[in-house]
Specification:
This is ArsR family transcriptional regulator. GO terms for molecular function: cadmium ion sensor activity; DNA binding; DNA-binding transcription factor activity; lead ion binding. It comes from Variovorax terrae. By secondary structure, the chain is of the alpha+beta class. It folds into two domains: about 70 residues, Orthogonal Bundle (Arc Repressor Mutant, subunit A); about 130 residues, no CATH class. The chain has twelve helices and eleven strands. The strands form five sheets. Strands 1-3-2 form a three-stranded antiparallel β-sheet. It has a two-stranded antiparallel sheet with strand order 4-5. The longest helix is centred in the first third of the chain and has 13 residues. It is globular and about 50 Å long.
């Protein structure tokens, strides 16, 4: 007999303010050390160790050793999706005036785990749909997308390995509701492949110790050629 999912244990694991802060830090997409997670969560390393052990025991995190350091990351893509969903439904903290919010790097462009979010991410998905490179999958019950033949050719011309993205053991392409924009950006392995390509081509640069990314002059030109109007930086 299959055991029922222990939702109460999961709720207790993510319900602690320090543990959920650690999980939010990992949405940057990089593996982090216990010290980095402790600093980011505002707690002592010894306290962080106990919280990390709980997250490991409950299957939310995985750890890998390299030299003297241990690096923590999400145990699966599903954990990243869970954290992003909580970001979308969580009550809003008091926000700065609208004039200040328009200059927020996190709102302009950031990583949502391993794919692009913010105004840049939502703009990219809108462009892919407008150009009919992507379309909603009529056979899917979830928010899945399918790549059209036109899109396959176009992405291949850009240098994106579509078949490698399809071979990954996860959703290929799906809508992911952006918590700051309240519009969809592109998730799944195709979204990750686009983000990897943008980084490899130096269209974007990750800001230090942040999920926010900056669009380089080279990236501005490349996105403009695609027909994407970028948010002001």
């Amino acid at each position: 007999m299959n055991a029922a999912p222990d939702l109460s244990r999961l709720a207790a694991a993510v319900g602690d303010a320090r543990r959920i802060q650690m999980l939010a830090l990992l949405m940057e997409g990089r593996a982090l050390t216990a010290k980095e997670l402790a600093l980011g969560a505002g707690i002592e390393p010894a306290t962080a160790t106990a919280h990390l052990r709980r997250l490991l025991d409950d299957g939310l995190l995985a750890v890998a050793s390299q030299g003297r350091h241990k690096y923590f990351r999400f145990a699966s893509d599903q954990v990243a999706q869970l954290v992003e969903t909580m970001m979308r439904v969580a009550p809003r903290v008091r926000e700065a005036p609208a004039a200040a919010r328009t200059d927020d790097p996190m709102r302009r462009a950031r990583y949502c785990y391993d794919h692009l979010a913010g105004s840049l991410g939502t703009g990219l998905l809108a462009l892919l749909l407008k150009r009919q490179w992507l379309q909603d999958d009529p056979a899917a019950t979830l928010r899945q997308l399918e790549l059209t033949p036109r899109g396959t050719r176009a992405l291949a011309a850009l240098g994106i390995d579509v078949e490698a993205a399809r071979a990954r053991r996860r959703q290929f392409a799906c809508r992911c509701l952006d918590w700051s924009e309240r519009r969809d950006h592109l998730g799944g392995s195709l979204g990750a492949a686009l983000a990897e390509h943008a980084a490899a081509e130096r269209w974007i640069e990750r800001r230090k110790h942040s999920r926010a990314v900056s669009v380089t002059p080279q990236g501005e030109q490349a996105f403009a050629q695609l027909g994407l109007r970028l948010p002001d930086s």
